[in-house]
Amino acid sequence: MYENKKILILGAAKSGLAVAKLLAHRNNNITLSDINELKVEDQKMLEDLGIKVVITSNQCDLIDTSYDLVIKNPAIMSTSDIVKKIENLKLRCENEIEVAYHFLPSGVTIIGVTGSNGKTTTTTIIYELLKRHGKNIVLGGNIGYPLSSVIDQVKSGDILLLEISDHQLCDIHDFKTNISVLTNICPTHLDYHGTYEHYMMTKKKIFNLHTGADVAILNKNNQDSMEVSEDILSKKIYFNDTENYYKDNYIYFHGEQYLNVNDICLKGLHNYENILAALLVLENFGIDKNVVIEFLKKFGGVAHRLEYVITKDDVEYYNDSKSTNPTATITALKTFTKPIHLILGGLERNQDFNELNDYMQYVKRIYAIGGVTDRVAEYAASINIPCDKCYVLADAMKKIKENVASGEVVLLSPGSSSQDQYVKFEDRGDEFKNIVEKF
């Protein structure tokens, strides 16, 4: 299937490099293109494999009907001219996960986790607990390990756990899981998809080719998740239903008290939902309850996802830099009942900060940053919350140091992408933590 072909790989990054190496020794004629210069070692590696490298800001010109296959980097928007040209020429377009899937041995159980929020935490809980139970498990996907780069580690009988973003679901065809988790769906990445409907239908592809023998784990409280999964053929299992839910400081599993949340590190309803989703996966593999509880007593969450940083002078600092949409910020705001100093803003994506209105009762002051600084300030004025127009995180932290008092919370939960000022959200979170450490 992937031999003796003329292949165009659009985008280097981790996934492009990994899939290029996977396909290099199969008598393929491969061209890899990126808009940025590659690292010297990556350029040499590709050239040594006989792969042609083309650096150009106009990748559309490379695309023609001579190619048997185009492998598109997930970051290339569905609304882009590149995608339109691929579609107009009726070229076969796949992503790295789709390609790598065809190289998996038989007898592998595949778990896929997606959702607008919570997928990394849910994936991490599943992985760590399966590993602690001695299961042969390989982790990959959006969590940082392209499937092509770990394909040699996967053996028949193994469990393959993949975190899968909406971007990665765009160009799948034959790929399917045995167990799929959809944590939730909310409006985000609309600049990428063009419409919310397209985004929702893309998320639905996590159930691609499912039959009644496959499992779908769904959030009963999330209306859009319920809507897109209405006609899927999977065996449907729910959290936030009458059996699996959180109430009065307890997580209930199959109708019984399972876990007192006061005994664990993770806080917030969203994290209790992530735990429930993970439990519904883990019960398929005979996981011991005591091991689960002991792990959760020590697991403090994933970096940059409502990550507790430190308490200084009786002020708690939380890094939620992964909050790239207002829905994620709502989740963070619902966690606290103390006065909050909220850092809000980033890249302009027409996000609607009015979605936060019902959850701002504990917000004492807002610090506006990024390309939406002025719009955040206008929003703060509309709900009568004091706001400092800081534009950059460092200036926001200076203002916070002047204003914050004992018993309060400082929360970086921007509700916006970081890419107006940072390469990635991790850089924004790291800067926040570095400044806090020096307070």
Instruction: Give the oligomeric state of the chains in this entry, treating copies of one chain as homo and distinct chains as hetero.
Output: single chain
Instruction: Briefly note the structural class of the backbone.
Output: alpha/beta
The main sheet orders its strands as: 7-8-6-9-10-11
Question: Helical content, roughly?
Answer: 25-40%
Please report the distance between the alpha carbons of the first and last residues. Answer: 57 Å
- Count of runs of 4 or more consecutive helical residues: 16
Q: Give unreliable regions as ranges.
A: none
How confident is the prediction overall: mean pLDDT?
A: 95
Spell out the key features of this protein.
single chain, 439 residues, alpha/beta, six-stranded parallel β-sheet, six-stranded mixed β-sheet, 16 helices
Describe this structure in words.
The protein has 439 residues and is α/β, with parallel strands linked by helices. The chain is 32% helix and 22% strand. The protein has helices spanning 13-23, 40-48, 81-88, 96-101, 119-132, 147-150, 166-169, 190-193, 196-204, 223-228, 269-282, 289-298, 326-333, 373-382, 393-403, 425-438, and strands at residues 6-10, 29-34, 52-55, 69-72, 93-94, 109-114, 137-141, 159-163, 179-182, 215-219, 235-239, 245-247, 250-253, 256-260, 307-312, 315-319, 340-344, 363-369, 387-391, 409-412. The strands form four sheets. It has a six-stranded parallel β-sheet with strand order 7-8-6-9-10-11. Strands 15-16-20-17-18-19 form a six-stranded mixed β-sheet. Strands 3-2-1-4-5 form a five-stranded parallel β-sheet.
